[in-house]
Amino acid sequence: DANNFIFESFAYGLSRNPVGGGGTNWGKYDPFEEAIAKGATETDPAARMDFYAQAEQILNWDQCVMIPIYWDSQVAVTKPYVQRTYSKIKGFEHHEKWDIVK
């Protein structure tokens, strides 16, 4: 979830995030704080994503707090008769739950 990554890594403020400066020592920036606060409480998924897109724009372009230079990916192939399972939360594979269906 976008809130987990953005809030825990970059939000500022003692009661909202115990790490002052959000773990980056980046100072408080009100437009960013407003975007993540609205995103955290928004119930409409499209509007929520818009707030996090605003926060990402601030982080990566307007203030250049971080530069995402690496995105982890994994490519795998599986025989059609192997039934694979994935975690719905983080996408991790559970090999112990795989099954062969013939």
Tell me what the structure shows.
It is a single chain. This protein has 102 residues and is mainly alpha-helical. The chain has a domain at 2-62. It has 3 helices and 2 strands. Helix 2 (30-41) packs antiparallel against helix 3 (45-62). The chain is elongated. The model has no long low-confidence stretch (mean pLDDT 80).
**What would the principal axes of the Cα set say about the shape?**
elongated
Radius of gyration equals: 18 Å
The biggest beta sheet is recorded as:
2 strands, antiparallel
- The strand line-up of the biggest sheet is 1-2
User: Whole-Å distance between the termini?
Assistant: 36 Å
SSE string, helix = H, strand = E?
A: HHHEE
Helix percent band: 25-40%
Mean pLDDT comes to 80
Number of strands: 2
Strand content: under 5%
Number of helices: 3
Q: Could you name the ranges where pLDDT drops below 50 across 5 or more consecutive residues? A: none
The SS-based structural class is: mainly alpha
Short recap of the structure:
With 102 residues, the chain is mainly alpha-helical.
